[in-house]
Structures are given as structure tokens and as C-alpha cells.
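To: structure subgroup
Subject: Chain for Friday's discussion

All,

I'm putting the inputs and outputs inline so they're searchable in the archive.
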Amino acid sequence: MPQKREKLVAVIGGNEPSPEEARLAEEVGRELARRGAILLCGGLGGIMEAACRGAASEGGITIGILPGNSPKDANPYVRIPIVSGTGYARNIAVVKSAQAVIAIGGSYGTLSEIAYARQSDIPVIGLNTWSISRNGQMDDSIIVAEDPVSAVNIALSSEE
């Protein structure tokens, strides 16, 4: 009999978040764990570490897809480190493995992950992150969330 798959939600963002962005990420992680979802991220510091810390505080499962060659590079809250040895190319695996992506803050690496997710029709929920315009018109492909709980609600309501 096939087993039910767990909900995987990617949390993406920069290595040097503001204190507010780090707070949002930690709360997103806590809420994902409370709801039984698995948190997937790039496994390093900043937003990734804050989200993993939040999930770990609630007993949640955290997976980090690392850019380098050693599981020791993972932040201390990553429960399952996956070594890719692919550098930033691992961004593709992070977002394409998830049913939804929550973007918090971030720089160009985050923007690349947003683009990969949207190219694959994976919903992106944003908290204090990028907004995109095309030909001078706002592109509403990033769903803006008011707070961490609503971001998780939107992410978990997305189909796989």
C-alpha cells in the first residue's frame, strides 16, 4: 500500500538577514513543525539557520541541501544534511523538491530560487522579499503573506 508523503516546504533567504527577517524565519520554522511539515532549505546560515532553529524547537524535521562536499557545513539545526557538491546549482534541488516555497528577505541567490520555483509552477510565498515587475507592470507571481502563520497556511494549502 502506498504511503502518504509528508508535506515538504522550502524556506529560502539570505545569509545575512535583518533581525526582523530572522525572527520571521524562526516563526515560519516553528509553524511548519507544529503543522507536521518538513522544512527544506539550503542548510547554511542566516534565514536557513533561523528557520531550522524554529522547526527544531518544535521537534520538526529539517533537511538541508548543502552546496559543498561535507555534511559538517550544515547549520546545527539541520537534522538531515544532503551533500550536493554543486554550489549554487543546489538551489534548483531545494525548490523543485518542495510543494511550496516561502521566501524571506534574500539577495540574488534567493531571486534565482524564486525564478526556478515559478518556472516549475511551484508557489512562492513572500515575507519581506523580492517583488517583481515585467514591462513596468507588477508581476503578482509571488504571493505576499502578512505574517509567518499565513505564509505557512498558504504553503500547506498548495497542491503537490
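Points worth raising on Friday:
Residues 62 and 112 are 22 Å apart (CA to CA).
The mean pLDDT is 95.

D.
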